């Protein structure tokens, strides 16, 4: 593999007949600062959710910290922080 923190090749996500992410090729070098910007519906959140293993890509490949995101162990996720734009905790959960 390379020295990319994130790399995608033709990454796609299709849902209900609509392309949410359409053949994304992306390379983010290690040590860089990178932001995904774009209008609502551009596929930013969907891309991040695929990279974090929350959504399975329809097709294509991706690597995070040189590990294939399709690898079942997903050990790279122990080295990545992700905070969703919404929380989906059970109502009875309380911060202690």
Automatic annotation (TrEMBL):
Entry-linked Pfam families: ABC_tran
Transmembrane segments: none
GO molecular function: ATP binding; ATP hydrolysis activity
InterPro entries to which the protein is assigned, alphabetical: ABC_transporter-like_ATP-bd (IPR003439), ABC_transporter_ATP-binding (IPR050763), P-loop_NTPase (IPR027417)
Gene3D superfamilies: P-loop containing nucleotide triphosphate hydrolases (3.40.50.300)
Domain of life: Bacteria
Family that this chain belongs to: Belongs to the ABC transporter superfamily.
The protein's name in its UniProt record: ABC transporter domain-containing protein
Provenance organism: Collibacillus ludicampi
